[in-house]
Structure formats: structure tokens, C-alpha cells
Prior knowledge:
Helix content is 73%, strand content 1%.
Amino acid sequence: MSPLLLLVLALILSASVSALLVRASTHAAKGFMDQPGHRKVHDHPIPRTGGIAVFVGAVAPMLSQLGLDRLLTGFAAGAVILVIFGMVDDYRGLDFRLKFLGQLLACTVMVLLSGLGIHTLGELWPGVEVGLGALWPVATIFFLLTAINAVNFSDGLDGLAGGISLLILACVALMAFFSEQPTVLVISLCAVGGLIGFLRLNVHPAVIFMGDTGSQFLGYTLGVCLIALTQQHSIYSPVLPLFLLGTPLLDLIMVVYQRLAKGQSPFRPDQNHLHHKLLLNGLDHAQSVTLIHAGNLLMLALGFSLRFSRDYLLAGIYVGLVSALLCIISGIRRSYPLRVRIQELLHTGFRALVAGAIPLYSPPALVRAAWLIFASTFAATFLFLPVLAVNLDNRLGAGFLAVAVVGALLYKTSPRWFDQYLRLAAYSTLLVVVITHANAELPASLASQIDRGLFIALGIAYCAYVVLSREHLRPDGMDTLLIAIAVFALFTPITERFPSAQVVLAKTLLGGLCINLVMNKLDSFRRPFALLCLASCLAIFTRSVL
């Protein structure tokens, strides 16, 4: 099965399970509810079962690929152990020693079953390669534990840990695509799909948390992918994971340094994390998350641009970066005027930057015309492209027929569930159509030209309406993450195979933004949008049997 179709399946599964868990939260045991506290930013109980949705969405599609190599088997076995311990921790709370034991057991099982390991640290001095010899299992497990706890520590704000992991996994998938590592590509894309389906309900204000189950699973996934990407005769430097682990690793280093400097245990909870400091210095929830995501994106861009550099150069740059950050922290702690200056900069500078511009004023008639053009182009895209799709599998068509039947039943019986159905049906249709057109044998055919023209018109219509409308249509946190991934991918080097992947990404994200815009107006356009989704599903089914 195509890795992109695995991503689609992971997204659908994760979104479906997330919605089920949110609905079930009213009857959930109290242990699975995250209660407000002095270190929490929410003021009412919220279920912390979202990690189950991410795990199910990511791992279930991988089961069809278990024969690919040993890595998938070892990854899945370790993930199951980690998630079991995470669920127990989310329900009743585990002592940090038992929690650490679960992490250690999961990492050990993964190493034993997969054989994956860190065998070399690279050429840390010109002409001198540092091999680990018999110590490679210890180094591997230590790195995995570091990755798990780095992501776990960063899970303090709505959408923060999930957004950071989404950016890193997207970068890993891109680099695995370049280096032709199919197993890493499958794991990272399935995890991306599982995250996207969950994050829609986790961005601020969140209605579900991932809990330790989700944050530990994501850290584990990142650790496994980064080791597999950069070891075993890889074209990438073994030092590169330090950069790709981004802000979670830097935050972990800085927090541990501050705790040790105060003579405290490195495992003691406090408010020294980066997101806590941003909140205490004047930024609100969404602005803090946006700033951390921006910093993480810069770290990924730096690592990606240096991916072929010498190992000792990468190590030197990273040590210099960490040293500079620790010196800055020490200077801020000792200088009150510097702290005040930073607070003013964050409060007046960054807050104004991310607050959003006031939409332009336009005559109402022009806004209505822009909306009519956008809605017409949107409908044409979702009606005609399924008819023009090629090589659709009969099983895929049967699946969309079932989606149409389920939608018709939900429309009559459960309006609350129907809104979730609409989003899933629209995204599924969009992804299938985009992928099938990208894989068409005749890129210069009439169908491909119509496909290209419709998406260009849709992009222009969307931008025109957003600019002309007097509504506040600033993208939410999920849209911002997807746009960041698109921008990052579009500026990557082009290979013979990558242009089609860029087109798939650009069309998918444009379609996703358009779907989000229509969903925001669902009160007025629920019936037309429902009929459009139903017609799209039936068109895919009809095209698959012809």
C-alpha cells in the first residue's frame, strides 16, 4: 500500500477514535480526566485519552507492512509496552521509577527485536571516527529515553507537543523519502496521519489531551525514526538527530541545568519549562505555542540545511548553540533589567506580530461575489475531480460507498456526529483524488490540465475571499502547522521524484484550508456541503466500477 494512503488511513482512524473518546469522556472514569492545578493552564477537567487515538491511528496502518523488515516489528512491540504503561500512568498515576521502568522495558524490547542501534557517533574529530563497539545498546536505549522524556516534558500547552512532533516527523519523512528508506517513511507518515487526526481536537482550546500515553509514544517514535534515519550506513550525519529533535531537547537540557544549578532533583516538577516562562512573561496560550513552533521550525531548517555537513562541524555548532543558551539563561537570572527588557519585547513585539492584522474593508456586494466564486470553484473541484480520477481500486470505491451510506444515516439520526463525518469525508475525498491524479500515467492529459486549473482557481478564489472579507479568518493552530510544513517542503531541493510529492502536499493543504473555511460556515451551509460530500463519495464509487 502506498505510504500516502497509509497516511490517509491513519488520519481517518485517529480522527474517528478521537471523536469517540471525546464523546465517551462524559462517562469516563475520573482517573482519565486531567484535573486543573497550579501547574496546569486549563480550568476544568479534560480527558487525557487522546494518546490512545494517536497510537491506534499510527500503528494500525503499519500492521499491513509488518513484513517490510525487522524494524517495524520491533517498533510495534515496544510501542505497545510503552502505551500500556502510559495508560496506567494516565489513569492512576505512576511513581516516576515505575514510569521509567516501563520506558526502559519498551526501549529494550525494541532494540532486541529490531537490532536497531547507534553504532557510531561519526567523525567527531577530523579523520577519527568514534565507534561505540559493545556499548551500542546502552547508547541506543539512552537516546530513546532522552527522546521520550524530552517530548513528555514539552507537553504543557494545548497542541504544543503534538505540533512539535508533527513538524519533526514531517521533516523525517521528507529526509527518508530522499534517502529511500521505506520503513522510516512508513513509520513517520503513519505517525503524521495519526497526529493530524488528533490535533484538530487538541489545538487551543483543547477538548482532549494526549496524556503521557501520547507524549511518550511520540517521543519513542521520534527516537526510533531518527536513529534509523542516521545510522546503518546512512547518507546523513549521526549527529543530525540533535538538531532534528529541536526545541524539546533544548528545553530538556535547559530545565535539567536550572534544576541542578539550584541543587534540586532533575526529576522534580517545576515551572522552568519554556512554555511556562513565556506565559509568565506576558504571552497568551496561542502566542506561546506559535513562538515555540517557530523556534522548532528554525532548528529543523538548520538541521536540514546542514544534513550533509561534517560530523565534527555539526557537533561543534550544536555545542556552541547549547552553551550560548545556557549563558543567556544565567545572564537573565542574574540581571533584573535584562528580564524586564525581555518581558517588554515579548509583550509589545511578538504579541503585536502574532495578534493578526485587521481585515480589509470591502463593499458587501464584492464580498458576496467573492464567496460565490469560491463556493462554486470549491464545489466544481469536489464534483469533477473524482469523475476524472484514474486507476481507482474497486475496494476503495466500495469503502466510499459505505462512507456515503453512513453519512446519510448520521444526517437523519445524529447531527452532532454528522459534523465530524463531514470533515472526515471531505478530507478523505480530497486526499484520494489528489493522490490518484498525481500518480496518473499521462501528466499532460486533459484530466490533469483540468485538475491543475481547478486547483489554481480554487487557490485564487480562497485568497480573494480571505482578503476581501471583513470576517476574522486567521487560521487556527492546526492550519498554522500545516502551512509551516508546506512552506518547509516547497523550499527543499527538487529530485526526479519529489516534484509530484510537492504537488500532492500543496494541493492537500490548500484543500484542507478551504474545507476549514467551509466548516466554519457550517450553520448556514450544512445541507449543501453534505450533498457535495455525498456526491463526491458516490462519484468515486461510480468511477471505480467503470
